[in-house]
Write a structure and sequence with these properties.
The chain is mainly β. It folds into two domains: 93 residues, Hepatocyte Growth Factor, CATH 3.50.4; 212 residues, Gamma Fibrinogen, chain A, domain 1 (Gamma Fibrinogen, Chain A, domain 1, Alpha-Beta Complex), CATH 3.90.215. The protein is built from six helices and 19 strands. The strands form four sheets. Strands 7, 8, 9, 10, 11, 12, 13, 14 and 19 form a nine-stranded antiparallel beta sheet that branches. It has a six-stranded antiparallel beta sheet with strand order 1-2-6-4-5-3. Strand 10 and strand 11 form a beta hairpin. The longest helix has 9 residues. InterPro entries: FIB_ANG-like (IPR037579), Fibrinogen-like_C (IPR036056), Fibrinogen_a/b/g_C_1 (IPR014716), Fibrinogen_a/b/g_C_dom (IPR002181), Fibrinogen_CS (IPR020837), Pan_app (IPR003609). GO terms for molecular function: extracellular matrix structural constituent; protein-macromolecule adaptor activity. Keywords: Coiled coil, Disulfide bond, Glycoprotein, Secreted, Signal.
Length: 335
């Protein structure tokens, strides 16, 4: 797998900390776990920042506070943040350390069941949003971002800014790219493996530059394997963003193969001789260039309604660029 992020584990190191003391009777052992490369998101922080010299000092502060269940420490800024939540949402941070208090956490453990979950729906609800390993195939795990707000969703795509270029090759979309905590495409091979294990639905979350949010859900979502060019099955719309399945006039998306600029499966060109992937600036399931493309060029402002290569959802905002979008899937019967 070639996604450019460090492989996460829930907890990778265990330490036993001896707190400094004046009298021997005051000495006690305080255990805690430390995980690498992630920190607690700001909305789940309950105290801090505190300027401390090390991860150990941050852990000492947390384990000495009865209300602290988790903490995070930034080795660059030397800042420590505390949280009363035992399973807060976390994000990737190269210099971050994630700390969990053994004693407090034991009261509210995050349990994954079964031991090898098929998708995020198998992870119990007291676990926070974050990066997990799932096992839709018996041969290898797939590392994914699980969104635990409401239902347990497996996120397969997200755009929040323009840091990652989405106008990429077939090979890139096959294996995936980006940072699971921010902007990424999971990878068509991995998406196919996941949705081939059960019946899945999909949700598209959309936000424009004026704070308006919309969603679209489809009860049926599947993609074929690479030999079918990852052909899409999409049906049974619900939501307030507008339906993009289309018709013979606008270009029906259901049943369409996946296209990239270097491998066009749509067999359609515009008056300039461009394929839809070339015109729209990113890969998608195209038919007459379609009613949506969430993999287009990221504009840092709302564009005009005739911007062909933007991230767009035509029934919602026409061709005007969107601020943030995501695609997430879940087991259809997980209701």
């Amino acid at each position: 797998m070639y996604i450019t992020f460090p492989k996460e584990t829930m907890f990778i190191l265990a330490f036993v900390l001896f707190l400094p003391c004046v009298k021997c009777a005051d000495c006690r052992k305080v255990p805690f776990n430390v995980g690498n490369d992630k920190i607690i998101v700001s909305k789940d922080v309950t105290a801090g920042p505190f300027q401390l010299k090390s991860t150990v000092e941050c852990a000492t502060m947390c384990t000495g506070d009865a209300s602290c269940c988790t903490a995070s420490y930034d080795n660059t800024t030397k800042q420590c943040f505390l949280s009363s939540l035992c399973n807060p949402e976390t994000v990737y941070s190269y210099n971050g350390k994630y700390i969990q208090n053994y004693i407090t956490a034991a009261k509210d453990p995050c349990t994954v069941k079964p031991a090898k979950p098929v998708d995020c729906a198998d992870i119990v609800t007291n676990c926070g949003s974050g990066i997990y390993d799932i096992y839709p195939s018996t041969t290898y795990p797939i590392t994914v971002y699980c969104d635990m707000t409401g239902y347990n969703w497996t996120v397969i795509q997200r755009r929040v800014d323009g840091v990652v270029n989405f106008n990429r090759t077939w090979a890139d979309y096959k294996t995936g790219f980006g940072n699971l905590a921010e902007n990424f495409w999971l990878g068509n091979d991995y998406i196919h493996t996941i949705v081939n294990s059960r019946s899945f639905m999909i949700r598209f979350d959309l936000e424009d530059w004026y704070g308006n949010v919309r969603y679209a859900e489809y009860e049926t979502f599947r993609i074929g394997d690479e030999s079918s060019n990852y052909i899409l099955t999409l049906d049974d719309y619900d939501g307030n963003a507008g339906d993009i399945t289309g018709d013979s006039g606008t270009g029906e998306i259901d049943g369409q193969p996946f296209s990239t600029a270097d491998r066009d499966s749509a067999n359609y060109v515009n008056f300039l001789g461009q394929s839809c992937a070339d015109q729209n600036g990113g890969a998608w399931w195209y038919n007459k260039c379609g009613l949506a493309n969430l993999n287009g060029y990221y504009y840092n402002y709302p564009t005009g309604s005739l911007t062909f290569n933007a991230i767009y959802w035509q029934p919602f905002k026409g061709r005007q660029s969107l601020k943030s979008v995501s695609m997430k899937i879940r087991f259809e019967n997980d209701k």
